[in-house]
Amino acid sequence: EEISYNTKTFDIYYEIKNDHKNQVLGDGEASSIAIAIKNKGVVAYNNPNAIKDYLEKYDLRCITSEDIFNELFKKGIISKKELKDFLEK
Fold it and tell me: How many angstroms separate the CA atoms of 31 and 5, rounded?
C-alpha cells in the first residue's frame, strides 16, 4: 500500500521517522506501523520491544514470526519438525 503525502498515514509515518527515540526503525518498519494504524491492523515485527511505545500509543497488536509459526503448527499446517527447525534458526 502506498502512503500518500498529506494524509493521516503519512503524518504517522513522519512522526515515527522523526521520533528522536527511534533509532531502530527504518522506512519499511515505519511504513508498516503507519499502515497498520490506518487499517486497524496487526504489525508483524520480531522485536516488539523496539516498537512498544507505538504499540501502546496506537493500541496495536504485534505478532512475531514465532507467533505465526506456532499458529501454523496448532492448525496442522506445518509439522512439529518444521516448527522445531524454524525455532532453532
Answer: 13
- Rounded Cα distance between 5 and 32, Å, is 16
Q: For the chain, what is the mean pLDDT?
A: 87
| Structural domain total, the chain | 1
Residue 64 lies in domain: 8-87
Q: What is the pLDDT of residues 48-57, one digit of tens each?
A: 988 888 899 9
Q: For the whole model, what pTM was predicted?
A: 0.76
Does the residue 2 lie in any domain? no
Q: What pLDDT shows up at residue 59?
A: 93
Tell me, yes or no, whether 1 lies in a domain: no
